[in-house]
Protein backbone atom coordinates (compact mmCIF):
# COMPACT_ATOMS: atom_id res chain seq x y z
CA UNK A 1 0.00 0.00 0.00
CA UNK A 2 2.98 2.35 0.44
CA UNK A 3 3.27 2.90 -3.29
CA UNK A 4 -0.46 3.63 -3.57
CA UNK A 5 -0.60 6.75 -1.38
CA UNK A 6 0.68 10.27 -1.95
CA UNK A 7 3.56 11.19 0.35
CA UNK A 8 4.57 14.58 1.62
CA UNK A 9 8.00 16.13 1.53
CA UNK A 10 8.76 14.61 4.94
CA UNK A 11 7.79 11.07 3.97
CA UNK A 12 4.51 10.72 5.92
CA UNK A 13 1.58 8.77 4.54
CA UNK A 14 -1.06 11.46 4.00
CA UNK A 15 -3.82 8.99 3.28
CA UNK A 16 -3.29 7.16 6.59
CA UNK A 17 -2.94 10.49 8.37
CA UNK A 18 -6.26 11.73 7.11
CA UNK A 19 -7.96 8.42 7.89
CA UNK A 20 -6.75 8.70 11.47
CA UNK A 21 -8.09 12.23 11.68
CA UNK A 22 -11.41 11.04 10.33
CA UNK A 23 -11.55 8.17 12.83
CA UNK A 24 -11.00 10.54 15.77
CA UNK A 25 -13.29 13.38 14.75
CA UNK A 26 -16.11 11.33 13.25
CA UNK A 27 -17.29 13.02 10.05
CA UNK A 28 -14.81 15.91 9.98
CA UNK A 29 -15.62 17.99 6.87
CA UNK A 30 -13.06 17.63 4.17
CA UNK A 31 -11.39 14.58 5.68
CA UNK A 32 -12.55 12.29 2.91
CA UNK A 33 -10.78 14.44 0.30
CA UNK A 34 -7.41 13.74 1.90
CA UNK A 35 -7.65 10.01 1.42
CA UNK A 36 -5.53 10.30 -1.74
CA UNK A 37 -3.26 12.73 -3.52
CA UNK A 38 -5.24 15.55 -5.19
CA UNK A 39 -3.25 15.12 -8.34
CA UNK A 40 -4.48 11.52 -8.63
CA UNK A 41 -8.20 11.97 -7.87
CA UNK A 42 -9.09 11.42 -11.50
CA UNK A 43 -7.10 8.18 -11.59
CA UNK A 44 -8.80 6.97 -8.41
CA UNK A 45 -12.24 7.64 -9.86
CA UNK A 46 -11.31 5.84 -13.06
CA UNK A 47 -10.08 2.84 -11.09
CA UNK A 48 -13.44 2.28 -9.27
CA UNK A 49 -14.44 -1.41 -9.34
CA UNK A 50 -16.93 -2.67 -11.82
CA UNK A 51 -20.54 -3.28 -10.78
CA UNK A 52 -20.14 -7.06 -10.82
CA UNK A 53 -16.99 -7.12 -8.66
CA UNK A 54 -17.12 -9.71 -5.87
CA UNK A 55 -17.75 -8.75 -2.25
CA UNK A 56 -14.42 -10.23 -1.22
CA UNK A 57 -12.48 -8.03 -3.61
CA UNK A 58 -14.35 -4.95 -2.47
CA UNK A 59 -13.93 -5.78 1.20
CA UNK A 60 -10.16 -5.95 0.77
CA UNK A 61 -10.14 -2.31 -0.38
CA UNK A 62 -12.48 -0.93 2.33
CA UNK A 63 -11.15 2.18 4.05
CA UNK A 64 -10.45 2.37 7.79
CA UNK A 65 -13.61 3.09 9.80
CA UNK A 66 -14.29 4.84 13.06
CA UNK A 67 -14.60 1.64 15.05
CA UNK A 68 -10.89 0.89 14.35
CA UNK A 69 -9.77 3.84 16.46
CA UNK A 70 -9.08 3.16 20.15
CA UNK A 71 -11.23 5.12 22.61
CA UNK A 72 -9.72 8.00 24.55
CA UNK A 73 -9.12 7.71 28.32
CA UNK A 74 -12.17 9.86 28.99
CA UNK A 75 -14.31 7.58 26.83
CA UNK A 76 -12.93 4.48 28.51
CA UNK A 77 -13.70 5.98 31.94
CA UNK A 78 -17.28 6.84 31.02
CA UNK A 79 -17.93 3.57 29.20
CA UNK A 80 -18.76 5.45 25.99
CA UNK A 81 -19.73 3.21 23.09
CA UNK A 82 -20.09 4.04 19.42
CA UNK A 83 -23.78 3.83 18.51
CA UNK A 84 -25.09 5.75 15.55
CA UNK A 85 -25.57 9.38 16.58
CA UNK A 86 -27.73 12.16 15.26
CA UNK A 87 -28.21 15.83 16.00
CA UNK A 88 -26.39 17.56 18.81
CA UNK A 89 -25.42 14.33 20.63
CA UNK A 90 -23.58 13.09 17.52
CA UNK A 91 -21.93 16.46 17.13
CA UNK A 92 -20.81 16.42 20.80
CA UNK A 93 -19.49 12.87 20.58
CA UNK A 94 -17.41 13.65 17.52
CA UNK A 95 -16.13 16.85 19.10
CA UNK A 96 -14.91 15.07 22.22
CA UNK A 97 -13.07 12.52 20.13
CA UNK A 98 -11.52 15.17 17.90
CA UNK A 99 -10.41 17.25 20.88
CA UNK A 100 -8.62 14.27 22.43
CA UNK A 101 -6.80 13.14 19.27
CA UNK A 102 -3.10 12.75 19.99
CA UNK A 103 -0.27 14.31 18.03
CA UNK A 104 -0.08 11.20 15.86
CA UNK A 105 -3.46 12.12 14.38
CA UNK A 106 -2.27 15.58 13.38
CA UNK A 107 -1.60 16.04 9.68
CA UNK A 108 2.09 15.97 8.76
CA UNK A 109 3.99 17.79 5.96
CA UNK A 110 4.69 16.07 2.66
CA UNK A 111 7.99 14.29 2.01
CA UNK A 112 10.37 16.12 -0.34
CA UNK A 113 11.21 12.99 -2.41
CA UNK A 114 7.58 12.18 -3.29
CA UNK A 115 7.18 10.48 -6.65
CA UNK A 116 4.04 9.72 -8.66
CA UNK A 117 2.57 6.28 -7.96
CA UNK A 118 3.38 3.61 -10.49
CA UNK A 119 0.70 1.15 -9.39
CA UNK A 120 -3.03 1.42 -9.95
CA UNK A 121 -4.70 3.88 -7.58
CA UNK A 122 -6.75 2.61 -4.65
CA UNK A 123 -10.36 2.20 -5.77
CA UNK A 124 -13.07 4.18 -3.98
CA UNK A 125 -15.32 2.10 -1.68
CA UNK A 126 -18.56 0.95 -3.20
CA UNK A 127 -22.03 1.24 -1.57
CA UNK A 128 -21.94 -2.51 -0.91
CA UNK A 129 -18.73 -2.10 1.07
CA UNK A 130 -20.31 0.61 3.21
CA UNK A 131 -23.38 -1.57 3.76
CA UNK A 132 -21.16 -4.27 5.32
CA UNK A 133 -19.82 -1.88 7.97
CA UNK A 134 -21.08 -1.78 11.53
CA UNK A 135 -24.49 -0.04 11.56
CA UNK A 136 -23.39 2.47 14.25
CA UNK A 137 -20.63 4.05 12.09
CA UNK A 138 -21.50 7.18 10.16
CA UNK A 139 -19.36 7.24 6.96
CA UNK A 140 -17.51 10.42 6.03
CA UNK A 141 -19.23 12.50 3.34
CA UNK A 142 -18.10 11.73 -0.19
CA UNK A 143 -18.05 15.36 -1.28
CA UNK A 144 -16.24 18.36 0.24
CA UNK A 145 -18.14 20.32 2.84
CA UNK A 146 -15.92 23.39 2.87
CA UNK A 147 -17.03 26.30 0.72
CA UNK A 148 -14.83 27.80 -1.95
CA UNK A 149 -14.78 31.04 0.03
CA UNK A 150 -13.39 29.25 3.11
CA UNK A 151 -10.73 27.53 1.01
CA UNK A 152 -9.77 30.71 -0.78
CA UNK A 153 -9.52 32.64 2.49
CA UNK A 154 -7.27 29.96 3.99
CA UNK A 155 -5.11 29.72 0.86
CA UNK A 156 -4.49 33.48 0.99
CA UNK A 157 -2.15 32.85 3.95
CA UNK A 158 0.16 30.59 1.97
CA UNK A 159 2.10 30.15 -1.25
CA UNK A 160 3.92 27.47 -3.30
CA UNK A 161 7.30 28.01 -4.96
CA UNK A 162 8.55 26.45 -8.14
CA UNK A 163 9.98 23.40 -6.35
CA UNK A 164 6.59 22.62 -4.83
CA UNK A 165 7.52 23.89 -1.34
CA UNK A 166 4.47 25.12 0.60
CA UNK A 167 4.83 28.15 2.88
CA UNK A 168 2.44 29.82 5.36
CA UNK A 169 2.37 33.21 7.09
CA UNK A 170 2.70 32.64 10.83
CA UNK A 171 3.32 35.27 13.52
CA UNK A 172 4.51 37.89 11.04
CA UNK A 173 6.94 35.62 9.24
CA UNK A 174 6.86 32.87 6.67
CA UNK A 175 7.72 29.21 7.34
CA UNK A 176 7.67 26.06 5.22
CA UNK A 177 4.99 23.53 6.10
CA UNK A 178 5.63 20.92 3.41
CA UNK A 179 6.37 20.06 -0.18
CA UNK A 180 4.12 18.83 -2.97
CA UNK A 181 6.27 18.30 -6.11
CA UNK A 182 4.85 17.50 -9.52
CA UNK A 183 1.55 19.14 -8.63
CA UNK A 184 -0.11 22.36 -9.53
CA UNK A 185 0.24 25.15 -6.94
CA UNK A 186 -3.52 25.28 -6.47
CA UNK A 187 -3.65 21.58 -5.64
CA UNK A 188 -0.92 21.89 -3.02
CA UNK A 189 -2.52 24.91 -1.36
CA UNK A 190 -5.89 23.18 -1.45
CA UNK A 191 -4.49 20.19 0.49
CA UNK A 192 -2.91 22.29 3.25
CA UNK A 193 -5.85 24.69 3.38
CA UNK A 194 -8.17 21.74 4.00
CA UNK A 195 -5.88 20.60 6.80
CA UNK A 196 -6.23 24.07 8.32
CA UNK A 197 -10.00 23.92 8.03
CA UNK A 198 -9.95 20.44 9.61
CA UNK A 199 -8.01 21.81 12.57
CA UNK A 200 -10.36 24.77 12.82
CA UNK A 201 -13.29 22.34 12.80
CA UNK A 202 -11.73 20.49 15.76
CA UNK A 203 -11.79 23.73 17.72
CA UNK A 204 -15.41 24.28 16.72
CA UNK A 205 -16.39 20.79 17.77
CA UNK A 206 -14.59 21.17 21.10
CA UNK A 207 -16.39 24.48 21.69
CA UNK A 208 -19.68 22.65 21.12
CA UNK A 209 -18.57 19.83 23.40
CA UNK A 210 -17.88 22.30 26.19
CA UNK A 211 -21.61 23.10 26.24
CA UNK A 212 -22.50 19.45 26.78
CA UNK A 213 -23.84 18.44 30.19
CA UNK A 214 -21.96 15.13 30.32
CA UNK A 215 -18.43 16.38 29.60
CA UNK A 216 -15.82 15.54 32.24
CA UNK A 217 -12.98 17.67 33.61
CA UNK A 218 -10.43 15.10 32.48
CA UNK A 219 -11.81 15.22 28.96
CA UNK A 220 -11.42 19.02 28.94
CA UNK A 221 -7.80 18.75 30.06
CA UNK A 222 -6.94 16.03 27.56
CA UNK A 223 -8.65 17.86 24.70
CA UNK A 224 -6.96 21.17 25.46
CA UNK A 225 -3.60 19.44 25.78
CA UNK A 226 -4.04 17.74 22.40
CA UNK A 227 -5.31 20.90 20.69
CA UNK A 228 -2.48 22.97 22.17
CA UNK A 229 0.09 20.62 20.60
CA UNK A 230 -1.67 20.69 17.25
CA UNK A 231 -2.02 24.48 17.15
CA UNK A 232 1.53 25.18 18.40
CA UNK A 233 3.15 24.82 14.95
CA UNK A 234 0.73 23.17 12.56
CA UNK A 235 1.67 22.18 9.02
CA UNK A 236 -1.35 23.87 7.50
CA UNK A 237 -2.14 26.89 5.37
CA UNK A 238 -4.53 29.39 6.91
CA UNK A 239 -4.95 32.02 9.61
CA UNK A 240 -2.96 30.22 12.31
CA UNK A 241 -3.03 33.24 14.63
CA UNK A 242 -6.82 33.09 14.72
CA UNK A 243 -6.58 29.41 15.69
CA UNK A 244 -4.36 30.30 18.64
CA UNK A 245 -6.72 33.12 19.64
CA UNK A 246 -9.68 30.72 19.56
CA UNK A 247 -7.72 28.17 21.53
CA UNK A 248 -6.95 30.70 24.27
CA UNK A 249 -10.65 31.59 24.45
CA UNK A 250 -11.50 27.89 24.65
CA UNK A 251 -9.00 27.48 27.49
CA UNK A 252 -10.81 30.22 29.38
CA UNK A 253 -14.17 28.56 28.69
CA UNK A 254 -12.73 25.19 29.67
CA UNK A 255 -11.51 26.57 33.00
CA UNK A 256 -14.96 28.05 33.67
CA UNK A 257 -16.58 24.75 32.69
CA UNK A 258 -14.28 22.84 35.03
CA UNK A 259 -15.23 25.18 37.87
CA UNK A 260 -18.87 24.59 37.05
CA UNK A 261 -18.33 20.83 36.95
CA UNK A 262 -16.47 21.01 40.24
CA UNK A 263 -19.34 22.89 41.82
CA UNK A 264 -21.90 20.46 40.41
CA UNK A 265 -19.83 17.51 41.58
CA UNK A 266 -19.53 19.06 45.03
CA UNK A 267 -23.31 19.57 45.18
CA UNK A 268 -23.96 16.06 43.87
CA UNK A 269 -21.58 14.60 46.45
CA UNK A 270 -23.28 16.60 49.23
CA UNK A 271 -26.64 15.29 48.08
CA UNK A 272 -25.33 11.73 47.90
CA UNK A 273 -23.84 12.01 51.39
CA UNK A 274 -27.16 13.35 52.69
CA UNK A 275 -29.12 10.51 51.09
CA UNK A 276 -26.73 7.86 52.36
CA UNK A 277 -26.74 9.48 55.82
CA UNK A 278 -30.55 9.16 55.83
CA UNK A 279 -30.17 5.40 55.27
CA UNK A 280 -27.68 5.21 58.14
CA UNK A 281 -29.95 7.18 60.46
CA UNK A 282 -32.86 4.86 59.71
CA UNK A 283 -30.68 1.90 60.65
CA UNK A 284 -29.59 3.63 63.86
CA UNK A 285 -33.23 4.47 64.70
CA UNK A 286 -34.15 0.81 64.30
CA UNK A 287 -31.41 -0.16 66.75
CA UNK A 288 -32.53 2.53 69.22
CA UNK A 289 -36.13 1.25 69.09
CA UNK A 290 -35.24 -2.33 70.06
CA UNK A 291 -37.05 -3.51 73.20
CA UNK A 292 -39.02 -6.46 74.56
CA UNK A 293 -41.88 -5.83 72.11
CA UNK A 294 -39.67 -5.83 69.00
CA UNK A 295 -40.79 -8.00 66.11
CA UNK A 296 -37.37 -9.33 65.17
CA UNK A 297 -38.49 -10.83 61.87
CA UNK A 298 -39.98 -7.57 60.61
CA UNK A 299 -37.01 -5.56 61.89
CA UNK A 300 -34.62 -7.93 60.14
CA UNK A 301 -36.55 -7.42 56.90
CA UNK A 302 -36.23 -3.64 57.35
CA UNK A 303 -32.45 -3.94 57.80
CA UNK A 304 -32.19 -6.05 54.63
CA UNK A 305 -34.22 -3.42 52.77
CA UNK A 306 -31.89 -0.67 54.03
CA UNK A 307 -28.86 -2.66 52.91
CA UNK A 308 -30.41 -3.08 49.44
CA UNK A 309 -31.02 0.69 49.35
CA UNK A 310 -27.38 1.27 50.32
CA UNK A 311 -26.11 -0.95 47.49
CA UNK A 312 -28.48 0.61 44.95
CA UNK A 313 -27.45 4.11 46.01
CA UNK A 314 -23.80 3.12 45.77
CA UNK A 315 -24.29 1.83 42.21
CA UNK A 316 -26.50 4.60 40.84
CA UNK A 317 -25.14 7.81 42.37
CA UNK A 318 -21.88 9.71 42.28
CA UNK A 319 -18.94 8.26 44.16
CA UNK A 320 -18.45 10.19 47.39
CA UNK A 321 -15.17 10.85 49.15
CA UNK A 322 -13.56 7.78 50.65
CA UNK A 323 -13.45 9.36 54.12
CA UNK A 324 -17.18 10.12 54.09
CA UNK A 325 -18.01 6.74 52.57
CA UNK A 326 -15.92 4.89 55.17
CA UNK A 327 -17.43 6.88 58.06
CA UNK A 328 -21.01 6.28 56.90
CA UNK A 329 -20.37 2.60 56.25
CA UNK A 330 -18.84 2.25 59.71
CA UNK A 331 -21.98 3.72 61.26
CA UNK A 332 -24.26 1.53 59.14
CA UNK A 333 -22.18 -1.57 59.80
CA UNK A 334 -22.16 -0.81 63.54
CA UNK A 335 -25.95 -0.50 63.55
CA UNK A 336 -26.29 -3.83 61.75
CA UNK A 337 -23.86 -5.48 64.17
CA UNK A 338 -25.73 -4.13 67.19
CA UNK A 339 -29.00 -5.41 65.75
CA UNK A 340 -27.55 -8.84 65.05
CA UNK A 341 -26.07 -9.03 68.54
CA UNK A 342 -29.38 -8.00 70.11
CA UNK A 343 -31.25 -10.54 68.00
CA UNK A 344 -28.82 -13.31 68.97
CA UNK A 345 -29.19 -12.37 72.64
CA UNK A 346 -32.97 -12.39 72.30
CA UNK A 347 -32.84 -15.76 70.56
CA UNK A 348 -30.68 -17.17 73.34
CA UNK A 349 -33.02 -15.86 76.05
CA UNK A 350 -36.01 -17.16 74.09
CA UNK A 351 -34.45 -20.62 73.91
CA UNK A 352 -33.82 -20.56 77.65
CA UNK A 353 -37.38 -19.43 78.37
CA UNK A 354 -38.81 -22.05 76.06
CA UNK A 355 -36.67 -24.71 77.71
CA UNK A 356 -37.94 -23.68 81.16
CA UNK A 357 -41.54 -23.61 79.90
CA UNK A 358 -41.11 -27.08 78.46
CA UNK A 359 -39.85 -28.45 81.79
CA UNK A 360 -42.80 -26.92 83.68
CA UNK A 361 -45.30 -28.30 81.19
CA UNK A 362 -43.72 -31.74 81.38
CA UNK A 363 -44.28 -31.62 85.17
CA UNK A 364 -47.89 -30.53 84.64
CA UNK A 365 -48.47 -33.40 82.20
CA UNK A 366 -46.93 -35.87 84.66
CA UNK A 367 -49.28 -34.71 87.44
CA UNK A 368 -52.28 -34.80 85.09
CA UNK A 369 -51.51 -38.43 84.23
CA UNK A 370 -51.37 -39.24 87.97
CA UNK A 371 -54.85 -37.87 88.78
CA UNK A 372 -56.69 -38.57 85.53
CA UNK A 373 -58.25 -41.82 86.93
CA UNK A 374 -59.51 -40.24 90.17
CA UNK A 375 -63.25 -40.45 91.00
CA UNK A 376 -63.12 -37.62 93.50
CA UNK A 377 -64.85 -35.41 91.01
CA UNK A 378 -64.88 -32.15 92.97
CA UNK A 379 -61.32 -32.12 94.27
CA UNK A 380 -59.83 -33.48 91.06
CA UNK A 381 -61.72 -30.94 88.93
CA UNK A 382 -60.34 -28.18 91.12
CA UNK A 383 -56.79 -29.52 90.74
CA UNK A 384 -57.13 -29.75 86.96
CA UNK A 385 -58.17 -26.08 86.95
CA UNK A 386 -55.04 -25.22 88.93
CA UNK A 387 -52.90 -27.19 86.46
CA UNK A 388 -54.46 -25.21 83.63
CA UNK A 389 -53.57 -21.93 85.37
CA UNK A 390 -49.96 -23.10 85.78
CA UNK A 391 -49.89 -24.07 82.09
CA UNK A 392 -50.89 -20.54 81.04
CA UNK A 393 -48.27 -18.95 83.29
CA UNK A 394 -45.49 -21.25 82.05
CA UNK A 395 -45.19 -19.43 78.71
CA UNK A 396 -44.47 -20.87 75.28
CA UNK A 397 -42.10 -23.73 74.58
CA UNK A 398 -41.95 -23.20 70.82
CA UNK A 399 -44.70 -23.73 68.28
CA UNK A 400 -43.97 -27.37 67.50
CA UNK A 401 -43.19 -28.26 71.12
CA UNK A 402 -46.30 -26.50 72.45
CA UNK A 403 -48.63 -28.35 70.09
CA UNK A 404 -47.23 -31.74 71.11
CA UNK A 405 -47.21 -30.91 74.86
CA UNK A 406 -50.76 -29.58 74.76
CA UNK A 407 -51.98 -32.71 73.02
CA UNK A 408 -50.53 -34.85 75.83
CA UNK A 409 -52.04 -32.67 78.57
CA UNK A 410 -55.41 -32.53 76.84
CA UNK A 411 -55.44 -36.32 76.51
CA UNK A 412 -54.94 -36.76 80.30
CA UNK A 413 -57.61 -34.18 81.09
CA UNK A 414 -60.06 -35.79 78.66
CA UNK A 415 -59.73 -39.11 80.49
CA UNK A 416 -60.83 -37.51 83.77
CA UNK A 417 -63.53 -35.22 82.43
CA UNK A 418 -65.03 -37.92 80.20
CA UNK A 419 -65.25 -40.22 83.22
CA UNK A 420 -66.88 -37.46 85.28
CA UNK A 421 -69.37 -36.78 82.52
CA UNK A 422 -70.25 -40.47 82.32
CA UNK A 423 -70.82 -40.45 86.09
CA UNK A 424 -73.03 -37.41 85.78
CA UNK A 425 -75.01 -39.07 83.04
CA UNK A 426 -75.59 -42.04 85.37
CA UNK A 427 -76.57 -39.70 88.21
CA UNK A 428 -79.02 -37.96 85.94
CA UNK A 429 -80.80 -41.26 85.33
CA UNK A 430 -81.04 -41.94 89.10
CA UNK A 431 -82.30 -38.43 89.76
CA UNK A 432 -85.13 -38.90 87.30
CA UNK A 433 -86.20 -42.03 89.16
CA UNK A 434 -86.02 -40.11 92.47
CA UNK A 435 -88.20 -37.38 90.97
CA UNK A 436 -90.93 -39.92 90.22
CA UNK A 437 -90.84 -41.18 93.82
CA UNK A 438 -90.96 -37.68 95.31
CA UNK A 439 -93.86 -36.68 93.09
CA UNK A 440 -95.75 -39.72 94.43
CA UNK A 441 -95.04 -38.53 98.00
CA UNK A 442 -96.27 -35.06 97.04
CA UNK A 443 -99.60 -36.54 96.01
CA UNK A 444 -99.96 -38.10 99.49
CA UNK A 445 -98.92 -34.87 101.23
CA UNK A 446 -101.30 -32.66 99.25
CA UNK A 447 -104.17 -35.05 100.19
CA UNK A 448 -103.71 -34.04 103.87
CA UNK A 449 -105.07 -30.52 103.33
CA UNK A 450 -107.23 -28.68 103.98
CA UNK A 451 -107.65 -29.34 107.75
CA UNK A 452 -110.68 -28.06 109.68
CA UNK A 453 -109.60 -27.85 113.27
CA UNK A 454 -106.69 -28.32 115.62
CA UNK A 455 -107.24 -32.06 116.00
CA UNK A 456 -107.17 -32.62 112.22
CA UNK A 457 -104.10 -30.37 111.99
CA UNK A 458 -102.31 -32.53 114.56
CA UNK A 459 -103.04 -35.73 112.63
CA UNK A 460 -101.95 -34.09 109.33
CA UNK A 461 -98.70 -32.95 110.96
CA UNK A 462 -97.84 -36.50 112.02
CA UNK A 463 -98.55 -37.88 108.53
CA UNK A 464 -96.49 -35.06 106.90
CA UNK A 465 -93.52 -35.84 109.18
CA UNK A 466 -93.50 -39.45 107.97
CA UNK A 467 -93.65 -38.26 104.35
CA UNK A 468 -90.74 -35.84 104.88
CA UNK A 469 -88.60 -38.59 106.43
CA UNK A 470 -89.16 -40.83 103.41
CA UNK A 471 -88.54 -37.78 101.14
CA UNK A 472 -85.07 -37.24 102.56
CA UNK A 473 -84.13 -40.90 102.09
CA UNK A 474 -84.94 -40.89 98.37
CA UNK A 475 -82.00 -38.59 97.41
CA UNK A 476 -81.37 -35.98 94.74
CA UNK A 477 -83.64 -35.07 91.86
CA UNK A 478 -82.75 -33.13 88.65
CA UNK A 479 -81.68 -29.61 89.46
CA UNK A 480 -84.31 -28.00 87.33
CA UNK A 481 -87.11 -29.77 89.32
CA UNK A 482 -85.82 -29.11 92.85
CA UNK A 483 -87.53 -25.76 93.40
CA UNK A 484 -90.82 -26.95 91.97
CA UNK A 485 -91.29 -30.04 94.13
CA UNK A 486 -89.82 -28.45 97.26
CA UNK A 487 -92.27 -25.54 96.84
CA UNK A 488 -95.27 -27.88 96.68
CA UNK A 489 -94.24 -29.72 99.87
CA UNK A 490 -93.67 -26.41 101.68
CA UNK A 491 -97.15 -25.25 100.67
CA UNK A 492 -98.72 -28.28 102.48
CA UNK A 493 -96.64 -27.55 105.55
CA UNK A 494 -97.74 -23.88 105.62
CA UNK A 495 -101.47 -24.76 105.47
CA UNK A 496 -101.20 -27.17 108.42
CA UNK A 497 -99.14 -24.66 110.36
CA UNK A 498 -101.74 -21.92 109.78
CA UNK A 499 -104.46 -24.03 111.45
CA UNK A 500 -102.10 -24.85 114.31
CA UNK A 501 -101.29 -21.20 114.88
CA UNK A 502 -104.94 -20.23 114.84
CA UNK A 503 -105.83 -22.84 117.46
CA UNK A 504 -103.01 -21.65 119.71
CA UNK A 505 -104.09 -18.02 119.35
CA UNK A 506 -107.65 -18.77 120.45
CA UNK A 507 -106.55 -20.50 123.63
CA UNK A 508 -104.12 -17.74 124.68
CA UNK A 509 -105.55 -15.26 127.39
CA UNK A 510 -103.29 -12.48 126.36
CA UNK A 511 -104.38 -12.97 122.79
CA UNK A 512 -108.03 -12.73 123.86
CA UNK A 513 -107.36 -9.44 125.66
CA UNK A 514 -105.59 -8.04 122.67
CA UNK A 515 -108.40 -9.24 120.45
CA UNK A 516 -111.09 -7.51 122.60
CA UNK A 517 -109.20 -4.24 122.63
CA UNK A 518 -108.66 -4.34 118.87
CA UNK A 519 -112.34 -5.15 118.31
CA UNK A 520 -113.41 -2.10 120.34
CA UNK A 521 -111.03 0.09 118.37
CA UNK A 522 -112.46 -1.13 115.07
CA UNK A 523 -116.03 -0.48 116.19
CA UNK A 524 -115.18 3.08 117.25
CA UNK A 525 -113.43 3.72 113.92
CA UNK A 526 -116.44 2.35 111.98
CA UNK A 527 -118.80 4.69 113.87
CA UNK A 528 -116.58 7.66 113.08
CA UNK A 529 -116.45 6.65 109.38
CA UNK A 530 -120.27 6.52 109.29
CA UNK A 531 -120.42 10.12 110.50
CA UNK A 532 -117.85 11.28 107.98
CA UNK A 533 -119.64 9.55 105.11
CA UNK A 534 -122.96 11.14 106.11
CA UNK A 535 -121.49 14.65 106.19
CA UNK A 536 -119.22 14.39 103.13
CA UNK A 537 -120.53 16.04 99.95
CA UNK A 538 -117.64 15.24 97.61
CA UNK A 539 -118.40 11.96 95.75
CA UNK A 540 -114.71 10.99 95.43
CA UNK A 541 -113.93 11.50 99.10
CA UNK A 542 -117.13 9.68 100.09
CA UNK A 543 -116.07 6.71 97.93
CA UNK A 544 -112.67 6.63 99.62
CA UNK A 545 -114.28 6.67 103.08
CA UNK A 546 -116.64 3.90 102.11
CA UNK A 547 -113.73 1.74 100.87
CA UNK A 548 -111.87 2.28 104.14
CA UNK A 549 -115.03 1.34 106.07
CA UNK A 550 -115.38 -1.91 104.09
CA UNK A 551 -111.79 -2.88 104.88
CA UNK A 552 -112.21 -2.33 108.61
CA UNK A 553 -115.46 -4.27 108.63
CA UNK A 554 -113.54 -7.22 107.18
CA UNK A 555 -110.97 -6.89 109.97
CA UNK A 556 -113.74 -6.84 112.54
CA UNK A 557 -115.30 -9.98 111.12
CA UNK A 558 -111.93 -11.70 111.19
CA UNK A 559 -111.40 -10.79 114.85
CA UNK A 560 -114.81 -12.11 115.81
From TrEMBL:
Composition skew (Low complexity), residue ranges: 20-51, 109-145
Annotated keywords: Coiled coil
Biased composition (Polar residues): 1-12
Biased composition (Basic and acidic residues): 147-162, 534-543
Residue ranges the record marks as coiled coil: 210-278
UniProt-annotated stretches for the region Disordered: 1-185, 534-560
Signal sequence residues: none
Protein name, entry field: DUF349 domain-containing protein
Lineage per the UniProt record: Bacteria, Bacillati, Actinomycetota, Actinomycetes, Bifidobacteriales
